[in-house]
Every structure is written in C-alpha cells, then in structure tokens.
Design brief:
CATH architecture: Alpha-Beta Complex
CATH superfamily: Nucleoside Triphosphate Pyrophosphohydrolase
Strand content: 35-45%
CATH topology: Nucleoside Triphosphate Pyrophosphohydrolase
Radius of gyration: 14 Å
Number of domains: 1
Structural class: alpha+beta
Order of helices and strands: EEEEEHEEEEEH
Largest sheet: 5 strands, mixed
Length: 146
C-alpha cells in the first residue's frame, strides 16, 4: 500500500529512500525513538530506521539501521506499507516493516530516548510525533485488526 502525505508544498527534489521498522512486542507495545539534537525535527518521536544506502535492499538497510540505532539483530520483517512524505527539509519514501522478533534489548545507541507505547492507546504518551509516524501507526492498527 502506498500513502502520500505532505506538510509542505512539494518541490522538485530527490526522494530519500528510508527503511523504517515498527518493533512490536508480545504485550502489544511498539517502540518510538526521540530524534537527537542537530537533526531536523530534533526532539520529535519517530519509528526507528534510516536511509537506504546504495546497493542495499530495504531489509538489509533495516538490519543495519536497527543494529546501529538500537543494538539489536533482526532476522525477519513483515512489509506494512510504503509512505511518501514531503517535509520542508526533504521528501522521503518510507518503506515500513513490522518487526516482531529480534535478538538483544533495544537501547538508544546514539543517545536517543526510547519509549514503548501501547498500540491500544489512540495516541502515544510521548510527543511531539513526526508527522509521517501518524499514518504508519494508523495503518498498523488497521492491519492488525484484520
């Protein structure tokens, strides 16, 4: 499923391909990380992930990013959606996967705060949330309700 969201006028600019992983534990909680100082939208909360490098598949990029950011190893992911979002600083295409199993305990390896949020709650307890995270979480709820 592809969803297009925009919070600014779309200008002709390159699309940044991003792999995002929604870690979902057996208690119905998902993980959010807080963007560190110095990055666009510093202090906002987001689904972990990062840019897909040249030659990487979405899954390989997600494995690398979650190892770097959270110190965990993933072996499988379930594709959830592809989401285009035009921020003021970049146009991103987010390849979103659900991650249900991993090895290790997620920790903020880049100094970021982490928060496990209940999927059954309509809004996370942390804020502000990156605008592109909202459609991801709504689609996850709909997907799991099927």
């Amino acid at each position: 499923m592809r969803v297009i969201v925009s919070d600014s006028t779309t200008m002709a600019r390159p699309i940044v391909e991003v792999a995002a992983g929604i870690l979902l534990n057996t208690e119905g909680r998902y993980l959010l990380g807080q963007r560190p100082p110095g990055k666009p939208y510093s202090g906002y909360w987001e689904v972990p992930g990062g840019k897909i490098e040249a030659g990487e598949t979405v899954f390989i990029a997600l494995q690398r990013e979650l190892q770097e950011e959270l110190g965990i190893q993933i072996e499988a992911g379930e594709e959830l959606m592809v989401l285009d979002h035009a921020y003021t600083h970049a146009h991103v295409r987010l390849h979103v996967s659900i991650i249900r199993q991993w090895r290790g305990t997620p920790k903020g390896c880049e100094g970021q705060n982490l928060s496990w949020e209940l999927l059954s709650h309509p809004k996370p307890q942390v804020s502000p949330l990156l605008p592109a995270a909202w459609p991801m979480l709504e689609h996850l709820r709909q997907h799991l309700a099927k």
